[in-house]
Amino acid sequence: MFYWLASLSDGGDFFNLFRYITFRAGGAFFTALMFGFLFGRPLIDLLRRRQRNGQPIREDGPESHLVTKAGTPTMGGVLILGALISSTLLWARLDNPNIWILLFVTIGFGLIGFADDYRKVSRNNTKGVSGRLRMGFGLVIALIAAWWAAQIQPGELRHQLAIPVFKDVLLDLGLLYYPFAMIVIVGAANAVNLTDGLDGLAIMPAMIAAGTLGVIAYFVGNRFFADYLGVHYIPGTGEILIFTAALIGGGLGFLWYNAPPAAVFMGDTGSLALGGALGAIAVLTKHEIVLAIVGGLFVVEALSVIIQVLYYKRTGKRVFLMAPIHHHFEKKGWSEPQIVIRFWIISLILALIGLATLKVR
Predict the structure, then answer these.
(1) How many domains does the chain have?
(2) pLDDT at 62 over 80
(3) What is the pTM of this model?
(4) How many angstroms separate the Cα of 187 from the Cα of each of 109, 211, 241?
(5) Each residue's pLDDT tens digit, 219-237
(6) Do 141 and 104 contact (CB within 8 A), yes or no?
(7) Rg value, the chain, Cα
């Protein structure tokens, strides 16, 4: 919305700043951050009144959670999404289809998560919406987003998978690109959801991944930087930086209340939405493989669950003391802050490796 203030500029005044993506990204960040600070406490108070027992705690989870996390309200993802969506609408170019694809995916997965959280708290048990129903709606949203993304991308890149490090190497997937993109988006959504098990554990890696992908999107959407770095130029993706800046601002506002001991959990409302958004950004920028590096922590968390389930069904034994893997370290005696901060460090290292793929060609 604010972008249109640039039309009031004669080229050398304050309004000219609104032409610049970096300026509007800064505005989006601070707007989302202030949204979190202003509405965080009232939202938490409202959730406490509505959710008398807070988020239901799994009885088969770590024993300490039954004591330390009982009564904490969930659905805090509403705060993140409110900050993210309102800030993006204010600061992004609304004639850019990339923004609408991201908002579509974010809101779509957010609604799935909201329905799941609502079912859990209203029935006071850990069983929410069935996995098949969640997966089905998620795949539909991802398919629409993948098709929409393909329509706005340059013809020579449509249905192509870019291989990082190797310059100008593209793998033509044809129509198989759509199920691949669907797996990327739905997989990212569920991986972030599985990571959200400790106070602050999911939100910081999500912000780190978003910041990294935002920088990549800015470079990919700028012909000069794209040519210099040897990456594929995709017009319009630079505007994604504003979306990711809003996500970081909203995430920090939420983390203020989610820092241990958490006053609120993001719930599936936030984790599914954030994960889906990360997957959609990767699809829009043709950096799906890089997402697996940048979001490597989420990949490991998801793989730990898959490995645990498959191995247990086959042998009756467990690979990990408990899955997802952050619970394994809890069982080994690591304190919650130790796990969270060390996982944050790992996320930052992986983000730097992901950024390095831009230059290593």
Answers:
(1) 1
(2) no
(3) 0.95
(4) 12, 19, 22
(5) 999 999 999 998 999 999 9
(6) yes
(7) 20
